[in-house]
């Protein structure tokens, strides 16, 4: 059956130039071009104007993806749809040498969530596409004239019939969404017959976003189902078009939030599968992995993307197809570079396509006069010079070329800046100077996990506040803490001499409670107390969380105090043994509406300074403010101009917050230790930037009246401290 508005001529996109370089273990250049060696990710980006369109990204390993066409659509939605928008793209390699893609025909800004059609596309080369529209109520008025939702079509090749089955969900009247199927006609421009129901919910609940994969003779249907707890469910059958039964009504996804748009694919040359899905209420995507298609584990920390996808699918492609895609939808101002040199701070490399510059941050001690970035190129890309170059006199000119299509010059510079001070993702840094060892220590949150889901704490040591040594894990919730195993956040520590021996009291957040562990040395081993120290709200507090402890010893009295809270600042004196608080001293400090979390207290020249973080750690505007008092539990005086540190957009430094501070022993010399979004990628991660943070140190200074002078965050950082 054919239908109206078919576009008979292929849509041809103008050729663009593209250079992509990336760091992976292998660039697969040694593999023949006709073998599967890469991945194509097709997706849309959102519900707003212009966001419902087909986008392409590519990957060499199935984990790290880079957008093509500068993350702009590869087809014009207005030309291929009835509504002006398309979403939920699914792509399939056909058995006949063609590629098939199907999409939802929907433009949310005009239509809300009601739609009536889907779009069928086919291509010989992934570049030029023919498209057709299928309006279900118009095509099948007798059976489906009252349909008002046609969502998320996908295609599966049926070897028994030699036909392509298209399956999708539809909603009729007040009935729940149901997954249907129909076979495409011979030229993939329409449906042979009226759709038939594919999946039957045992409880007659809605099911959408089906995705089928065949493994060991069994068809695995992943879908968003409302059976049991809503989420991604799995149904199995030994036949493609019937007999699907749920494995259980429990979710196979690894989320506790709403998800949709499951996409399952097998890694090339592996027995492992990746199931990805759209955590749409949180604005993020989650990737999970499995070898049996029933038990999945989250691998978000292994995934990178320079775009924010919505409901998409991944297709393994050959080296030849990858080159075609890059040649077609590339741009020289979107030159994506990473490098292999062990001397690089890899996550802080800055590529500015508009200015044609690359900044390479190096570890201390690197020889600038003979440094090789060890660039790694995708297939079809080349560059020169190669090998070690002299960066000591300034930028070095590099030329990148694409298979005879042209070349571009980038000025590549290298420098040994000191921020961030720790390599990797860490946040909420608490700093200690140990009298016992004569060293500095940073105790951070282990970051880089979605939703702050880390479960362990580490410590780093330094003689000079610039060169830091990873001393390893000092407390693991899963093995060392009996009362919880989740959300290891925002620790603090203090050194106390008790009965002539140094002890280290480590207060940490876990499961939104404050715990306590004790050690004889700054690097542990730390032994948990066996129960939370703070697991209740102060009287009068109904919101917020019991997190972000700070411990402070008053140099005037020798007494120690604990501060904590989120949305409120609680304070109490600690017992002499540091193992409990004196509840009769517990009070709520008089904060203002800028207070969010992250209290930190210091003492200087008779004044107690209380610092805290404002806004959300996922916000670029996360910042630090302060107040003063005449005692550790005294009334706070909040200056009119009380910002300690905030973002510097000109330097691409954002979300500077949750700080600690350190005084150089014997000197009136202070330093602020804080976290920021990872630079330069954090600002483009959306709210996920708040899970990918870095620890920095800059100088903290005071004016003649004792006020804190606003700290300007830097890339250069501080010089080594004696």
UniProtKB/TrEMBL annotation:
It comes from Gaoshiqia sediminis. PROSITE patterns: PROKAR_LIPOPROTEIN. Belongs to the glycosyl hydrolase 43 family. GO terms for molecular function: hydrolase activity, hydrolyzing O-glycosyl compounds. InterPro entries: Glyco_hydro_43, Glyco_hydro_beta-prop_sf, Glycosyl_Hydrlase_43_Enz. This is Family 43 glycosylhydrolase. Residues 1-32 form the signal peptide. One of its GO terms (biological process) is xylan catabolic process. The keyword Signal applies. The keyword Hydrolase applies. It holds the Pfam family Glyco_hydro_43. Keywords: Carbohydrate metabolism, Glycosidase, Hydrolase, Polysaccharide degradation, Signal, Xylan degradation.
């Amino acid at each position: 059956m054919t239908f109206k508005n078919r576009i008979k001529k292929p849509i041809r996109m103008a050729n663009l130039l593209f250079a992509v370089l990336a760091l992976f273990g292998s660039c697969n250049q040694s593999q023949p071009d006709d073998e599967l060696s890469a991945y194509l990710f097709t997706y849309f980006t959102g519900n707003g104007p212009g966001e419902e369109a087909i986008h392409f990204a590519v990957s060499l390993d199935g984990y790290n993806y880079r957008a093509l066409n500068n993350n702009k659509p590869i087809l014009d939605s207005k030309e291929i749809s009835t509504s002006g928008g398309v979403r939920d793209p699914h792509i399939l390699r056909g058995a006949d040498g063609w590629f098939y893609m199907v999409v939802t025909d929907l433009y949310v800004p005009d239509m809300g969530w009601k739609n009536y059609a889907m779009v069928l596309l086919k291509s010989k080369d992934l570049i030029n596409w023919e498209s057709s529209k299928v309006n279900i109520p118009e095509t099948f008025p007798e059976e489906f004239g009252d349909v008002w939702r046609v969502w998320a079509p996908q295609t599966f090749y049926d070897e028994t019939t030699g036909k392509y089955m298209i399956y999708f969900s539809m909603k009729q009247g007040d009935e729940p969404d149901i997954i249907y199927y129909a076979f495409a006609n011979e030229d993939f421009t329409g449906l042979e017959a009226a759709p038939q129901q594919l999946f039957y919910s045992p409880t007659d609940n809605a099911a959408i976003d089906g995705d089928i994969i065949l493994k060991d003779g069994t068809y695995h249907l992943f879908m968003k189902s409302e059976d049991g707890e809503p989420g991604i469910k799995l149904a199995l059958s030994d036949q493609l078009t019937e007999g699907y039964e749920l494995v259980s009504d429990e979710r196979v996804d690894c989320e506790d939030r709403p998800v949709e748009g499951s996409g399952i694919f097998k890694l090339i040359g592996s027995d492992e599968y990746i199931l990805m899905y759209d955590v749409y209420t949180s604005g993020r995507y989650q990737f999970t992995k499995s070898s049996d298609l029933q038990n999945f584990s989250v691998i978000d920390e292994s995934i990178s993307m320079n775009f924010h996808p919505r409901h998409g699918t991944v297709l393994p492609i050959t080296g030849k197809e990858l080159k075609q895609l890059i040649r077609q939808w590339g741009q020289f101002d979107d030159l994506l570079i990473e490098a292999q040199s062990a001397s690089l701070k890899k996550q802080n490399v800055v590529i500015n396509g508009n200015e044609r510059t690359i900044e390479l941050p190096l570890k201390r001690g690197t020889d600038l006069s003979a440094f090789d970035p060890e660039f790694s190129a995708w297939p079809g890309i080349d560059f020169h010079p190669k090998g070690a170059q002299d960066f000591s006199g300034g930028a070095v000119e590099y030329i990148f070329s694409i298979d005879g299509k042209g070349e571009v010059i980038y000025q590549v510079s290298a420098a040994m800046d000191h921020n961030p001070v720790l390599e990797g993702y860490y946040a909420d840094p608490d700093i200690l100077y140990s009298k016992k060892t004569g060293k500095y220590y940073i105790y951070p949150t282990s970051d880089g996990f979605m939703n702050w889901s880390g479960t362990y704490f580490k410590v780093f040591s330094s003689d000079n506040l610039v060169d830091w040594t990873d001393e390893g894990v000092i407390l693991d919730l899963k093995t060392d803490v009996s009362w919880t195993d989740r959300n290891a956040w925002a620790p603090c520590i203090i050194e106390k001499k008790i009965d002539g021996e140094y002890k280290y009291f480590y207060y940490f957040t876990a499961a939104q409670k404050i715990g306590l562990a004790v050690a004889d040395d700054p690097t542990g081993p730390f032994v948990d107390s066996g129960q939370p120290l703070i697991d209740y709200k102060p009287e009068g507090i109904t919101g917020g969380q019991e997190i972000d402890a700070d411990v402070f010893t008053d140099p005037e009295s020798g007494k120690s105090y604990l501060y904590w809270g989120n949305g409120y600042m609680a304070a109490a004196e600690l017992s002499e043994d540091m193992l409990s608080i004196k509840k009769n001293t517990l009070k709520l400090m008089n904060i203002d509406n800028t207070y969010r979390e992250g209290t930190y207290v210091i003492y200087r020249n008779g004044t107690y300074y209380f610092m805290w973080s404002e806004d959300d750690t996922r916000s670029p505007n996360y910042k630090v403010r302060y107040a003063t008092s005449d005692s550790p539990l005294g009334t706070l005086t909040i200056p009119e101009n009380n910002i300690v540190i905030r973002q510097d957009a000109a330097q691409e430094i954002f979300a500077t917050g949750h700080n600690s501070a350190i005084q150089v022993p014997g000197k009136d010399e202070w330093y602020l230790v804080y976290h920021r979004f990872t630079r330069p990628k954090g600002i483009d991660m959306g709210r996920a930037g708040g899970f990918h943070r870095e620890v920095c140190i800059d100088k903290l200074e005071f004016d003649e009246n004792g006020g804190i002078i606003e700290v300007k965050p830097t890339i250069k950082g501080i010089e080594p401290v004696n």
